[in-house]
Please model this.
Amino acid sequence: MKNQGRTLLQKDGTKTVLASLLSIVIGLAVGSILVLVVGLFSDNLGMASAWEGIRLIFFGILSTGRNTSGSLTWGFNPQSIGNMLFRATPLILTGLSVSVAFKTGLFNIGAPGQYLMGTMVTLAIALGIPVSALPSPVIWLLAFLGGMLAGALWGCIPGLVKALLNINEVLACIMTNWIAANLVTWFFDANKMFQNTVENTKSSYVYKTAYGRTMVDGAWTYVDGSGVQTAKLGLDKIFPGSQVNAGILIAILIAVGVYILMTKTTLGYQLKACGSNRHAARYAGINDKRNIVLSMAIAGALSGAGASLYYLAGNTEFFWQTYQSLPAAGFNGIPVALLAANNPIGVIFTGCFMSMLNIVGLQLTNLTAYNEYITDVIISVIVYLSAFSLLIKMLLSSRKKGKPAQAAPDSPAEVKAVEEASAEKGGERA
Amino acid sequence: MRTMESENIIEMLHITKEFPGIIANDDITLQLRRGEIHALLGENGAGKSTLMSVLFGLYQPEKGIIKKNGQEVKIHDPNDATALGIGMVHQHFKLIEVFTVLDNIILGAETTKMGFLQKKEARAKVEALSERYGLKVDLDAKVEDITVGMQQRVEILKMLYRDNEILIFDEPTAVLTPQEIDELMTTMKEFAKEGKSILFISHKLNEIMAVSDRVTVLRKGKYIGTVDAKDTDKQSLSNMMVGRPVQLEVTKAPARPGEAVLDVRELCVPSRSHKKNAVNHVSFQARAGEILCIAGIDGNGQTELVHGLTGLEKSSGGTVTLCGEDISHASIKHRGANMSHIPEDRHKHGLVLDFTLEQNLVLQRFNEKRFQTHGFINQGAVREYAGQLIEQYDVRSGQGPVTMARSMSGGNQQKAIIAREVDREKPLIVAVQPTRGLDVGAIEYIHGQLVAERDRGRAVLLVSLELDEVMSLSDRILVMYEGEIVGELDPKQTTVQELGLYMAGAKRMDRSGKEEKGA
Amino acid sequence: MTFLIQQTLLYAVPLMIVALAGVFAERSGIINLALEGIMIFGAFIGVLFVNMMQGFALFHDAFAAKSWLTLQGLELLAMLAAGVMGAVFSLLLSFASVNLKADQTIGGTALNLMAPALVLFLIRIIANQNTLGMAEGDAASWFMIKKSTFGIDRKTDLGFLGETFINKVYLATYVCILLFVVLSVLLYKTKFGLRLRSCGENPQAADSLGINVYKMRYAGTTISGALAGMGGFVYALTTANCASTGDVAGFGFLALAVMIFGNWKPLNIAGAALLFGLFKCIAASYASIDINGDGVCMLASAPISSHVYRMLPYIITLVVLAFTSKKSRAPKAEGIPYDKGQR
Model:
C-alpha cells in the first residue's frame, strides 16, 4: 500500500514537470507560428527570415550572431549564458514572490510595484550614502536590505486591505502598482542627485561609486574608492563579456531558503493552511489575517530583493519615468511561478528559462527584422496554458494509461467524498 | 379498461448508473402509477438521488430504459424532462437567492414578447395556482429573505407553473418544522387526488407510512423491492432499508454530572444575514460528565451559538465562562486551550483537504513543543503521533499518514476529526452534527466515542438536528428556536412529539422552566 | 466648466462601457480580469482599421470634401471592428474558463500579458516604432464633431448645453451611452438577461431549469469582450488621438473597480464612472482645467505636485474599495467553473 502511494507521488511530480515542458513547447510553437504567419504575409520579411526567426526562438541562447556571408552562426555563447543567469536573478525572486503568495491563496500581481519600491530604496541608499562614510560592502548590504524592506512594506498594503476589509487582492495590487510607479517617478524627479548627469531620464550608475562618488564640501565629486556593486566572485571569468555576478547565487540561496520555510517550518505550515482553507485555519486558531499580511510581506520582500540584486549589479540602467509602464520583471514572476507549479526549487529553473527567452528576444531584435515582443507573446501563452495545467496533467496521465480523459477518482470512497463535497457546496445557503 | 401499460405513467426499467469505481444504481426498476404517491426509501448513499437525477435528465444511465405511458423516451437534460411533464423539488433548493420569487418561478419557462419578459401574465397564473393549492408566497420578496418553508413552496409552484404531472420530491421534509411537514403532506395528497403522480424520496419511516401508497426500497445501489404501504409496517420497511434490525438505542450508563465546565450567560451573537441577533440572550451551563444536547430545526441559531462559543464569530453581548475563566473575548486559539470542537462542516472548517492526514491531525497542535523546535516541524514526531491516532481510532485511508485528506471517505474524514479533537483531551467537547451524512457503522462508532468521553468526566455539548440522535444520546436537552432557548427537557421523560412542538415554536418555557401557553 | 464636463465624459464613457463589459461577464459567472488586455487589443484593431481605411480613396476624398457623414461612418465601423475583434479575443478566456474549467484569474492575466505583447509585436513590424497612429491627420480633424460640422460659424455661441454637448465631441461617446442604456435594458427586462444573471448566481439551479449554462457564460463573456474592445478603441480615439501603444495605463482595472463600486448594477456604475472619470480627467489635465472660468487654472497653481494628481485615480480607487467592500455583493457563482458532472 505504502509503496504504491510513493510511486504515485513520484508520478505526480513527473506529471507536473511534463505538463510544464508541454506548456513551454506549445508556447514556443505558437511563437513560431506567429513568426511564420507574419513572415509570409509581410512584404519585407519572407520565408527565409521567418525560418531564421523560428530557429532563434528555439535555440537563440546558442546563437553567436551572423558570419560574414550573412547566415546565422551557432555555438556556445558565454556572454549570452552569463547574461541569462544575470537576468534570471530578478525573475527567480519575483517568481518566488508570486509563488509564496500563491501558497497562501493570494495572487500577487503586485510584484511590479514591490519591485519598483525596492528599486527606489536600493538606489537611494546605494547612491545616497557616500563611500567615505561607510565601507562599501556595508552600503551594499544596507541597500539590499532596504530594498527588501521597501518591497515588504509595499506588499503589506494589499495584504492588509485583503485581511481587514476583504478587498480582492488582485485589484488592490494593481492599484498599488500604479501608485508605486508614480511615487518612484516623483522621488527621482524631486531628487536630482540620483539622476544620471548625462541622461537625466536614467538613474545614476551604482558602479560609478566604485570610483567613489562622495560628498566633498557639499558637492558630489568622484574619487577613488571600493565599489558598492555586487561582487562578481569570478563568474565574469567563466562567462566573459556578460553582466553575471554573485546575485544569481544569492537568488538560488534565497530559493532554497524559501523551500525550507514553506516545507519544514511551522510558519510555512500556517501559511499553507491559510492558503488551502482559510476557514479551517481560523477554526484551528491560526491567525489567518496575520498570515495573509505576513505572506504578502514576504512576497513583497522577495520582489524587492529581486530589484535590489538587479540594480546593485552596477551596470544596469534604471529609467525612472515609470509612471506610464510597469516593469516586466514583476509581471514575469507570474509565469515563472506558474510554470514551476509554485515549487521554490523549480522556480530557479523556470526563472532561468524565462531569462533565456529574454535573451532570445534580444537576439531576434538584433539579428532579424522581428522584435523582442514575440517572447512576451510566448510567455503569455505559457501563462494561459498554466491556467489549466491540471487538465494538461490529466491528459498526460490518461495518455499513458490509454484511458479516456476524465477526472476519475480512484475509489468508491473518493466518489463519495467528491459527491458530498459538491452536495455540501450546493447546500451552503444564506 | 386500463391496460397495465397505461396504468404506469412512468417506468424506469433495469436502470444502471455507474460512476468511476462505484455502481450507484444497479439494475433498478421503478414503476410509478398515475395518481399515486410512491415513496422511494433508502439510507444515505442508497442511490435514491442518483435514480431521480436519471429520471430528471441530469445523468444518463449506462443501461436500462425509461418509458412514459408505455412509450420509450430519452431524457437527455432537464428540458426533456420538463417537456415530458416531469418536475422535481431538489433536496437543496435550486433557487436564485437575489431574484424575486416570481422571477424564480418563471426562470427557464418565461413568456416573452419580442424577447421582453411579460411578467403580468406570469403573475396572474402563479397567483391562481397559489390560491388554488393554498401555497402562500410573496411574489415580490427576494428568495434570500423568505423562510425555508416558503422557499419550498416556491419550488412546488415552479413545477405547477410548468404544468408538470409527475412531481419528484427529494427529501422535502428535512428542512421543515413538523407543522410545515403536515401542510406539505396535505398538499401532496391533494395533488395525487387530482391525478398527478408523485415520487417521494425519504428515509423517514413515519412520513412514508403517513402519505404514500406504495414504497420502493433501495439499498446500496440495489433494488430490494416494492410494497404496498398498507400491507407493511415500519419495522419491516426498516429491515428492508438497512438489511438488519436497526438499533437506535445507544447503550450508556446513567450520567453522573459534576461541576459546570461551561457557563454561558445572556450570550448574543449577531446574524450575518439579517439585522437581528441570531443568538439572543442565551444562558445555560454544561456540566462535566453529561451530554448536553442543543436540539432545533436547522437555522435557529445553533450554528451561530457554536461560533460564538468557539470564537469563530464575535459575540455582541453576554459572557462565556470556560473552566472558571472568562473567555467572552478570547481568541480562538486561547479558547482552544480548554475546548475541542468537532465542527458542523468538516470540509469547510474541519479539514484542510489538500493537506495530508498527518498534517490535519496536528492542525491545532503543530506549535506544541513536541512537534516543533525553533519553528522547524519535527516530522518524525508528527508521523509517529499520526500513526498512533490512526491506529487507536481506526481511521482508514489509502496511504496512512501521508494520504491526502481529500481522497478519504466522508466517514473516515469525520473519524480523523474526532480522533484529533478527542485526543486533545479538553474538558469541553463541542460536537456539531457529528454524524451527518455517515453510514450506520460510523454513526454507532461516533456515538460510542462521545459517551466514552462523557464517562471520562468531560462535558459534551452536542448540536444535532436528528431527533433520534437527540433522544438516544443526550442526558439533557435544550431546544433552540429563533435564537433563543425555549425549553429544557429530560430525554427520559419527554417524547419526540413534545420535542417537535418546542422545536417548531409551538411551545416554550419561561426562564424558570415552566411551560408558557400559546407562544 | 464646459471643458471639465467634456473631459470628464471622455474618460467616464469608456470607463462606463468597459465596466458594463465586466458586469456582463461576471453576471454570467466569469471573472473577466482581462478587460485591460481586451481594451488594448480593441484599441489596436480600431486604430489599425482607421489607419488602413485612410489609404482608400473613398475616405481620403471624404476628408478632403469634408463629408462628415462618411467620416462618422468610418468611426462607427472602426468601433465595430474593435468590438468584433475584442469579442474574438475574449473567446480565449471563455474557452479556458468554460470548457477547460481553468482558473479565471490566471486566464485573465494571461490575456492581459498577451494583448500588449501581441500588439507591440505587430506595431513594431507594421510601423517600425512603438506607436501606431493614424496614417495622416489627427483624430480631431477627422472625427471630432465641431460647429463647422453643422455649418455653424465658429463664433456663434450655442449656449452652455450646446457648447458642452454638441461642440467638440465625438459621436462614439454618444453611441457608447446609447449602447449602455440598451444593454442595461437587455440585462434586466429580457429573457436573455434573466437567464444570464441566473447563471452567475446559481448555475446549478439554472441548469436544472434547462438553461445552458455554458452557452450563457460564453454569451456573457463575448458581449463583455465586444464592449471592452469597443471601449478600448473609444478610449484611444478620444483621449490618445487615435493611437495605439499597447497600453491603456490600468484603465481596464479602473473599470473593474468602477464595477465593484457600482455593485454590479448599471445605474450605480454610470454614477461611479462619472466620479472616476472626473478624477481621471483631473489627473490628465489638471494643468489646463479652469473650473470657474476666470482664466486661472486653480489646480495647477495649487502647491501640489503633478505626481499627486496622476496618482489620485489609483489612490481614490483603493479608498473607495475600502469603504464599499463590506456592502458590495458580487454574483455568487462568479469565478467558480461550472461542471455539469457535479451538480
Notes: Chain A is about 65% helix and 5% strand. The mean pLDDT of chain A is 81. Residues 52 and 70 of chain A are 11 Å apart (CA to CA).
